[in-house]
Design a protein that fits this description.
mainly alpha; about 110 residues
Length: about 110
């Protein structure tokens, strides 16, 4: 009888210790998530674009998506006239992409 009472108490203590350990683990996980979020904010602040640069990046990405779509259509195209129209559109898109260019750093002033 005494052995079962000790065993029963041991289970309760084990369960209580497990809950305490779980709480500590959860708080460490939350702390890690907060640290990761703060690190992400500082990295985003460092790489922040001006509105003009952001517009250029968006325009370039849009043109590149259009080019990928045209290339996909060209692969599926069997009609020579349709293919010629797609090739002309692709050439136009490539001119626009060259006009936008890669996003550049702002020119540095000074000596």
């Amino acid at each position: 009888m005494a052995i079962s009472a000790i065993a029963g108490r041991g289970k309760r203590e084990y369960a209580r210790g497990f809950r305490e350990m779980a709480r500590g683990w959860e708080s460490k996980s939350v702390e890690g998530q907060i640290d990761a979020a703060n690190a992400g904010r500082t990295e985003a602040a460092k790489g922040r674009l001006t509105p003009e640069k952001a517009a250029l990046v968006r325009k370039r990405e849009t043109l590149l998506l259009g080019k990928a779509h045209l290339l996909q259509q060209m692969q599926a195209s069997q009609n020579p006239r349709h293919r010629a129209m797609l090739e002309a559109a692709l050439a136009d898109l490539e001119r626009q992409i060259a006009g936008v260019g890669a996003p550049r750093e702002a020119p540095k002033t000074g000596a």
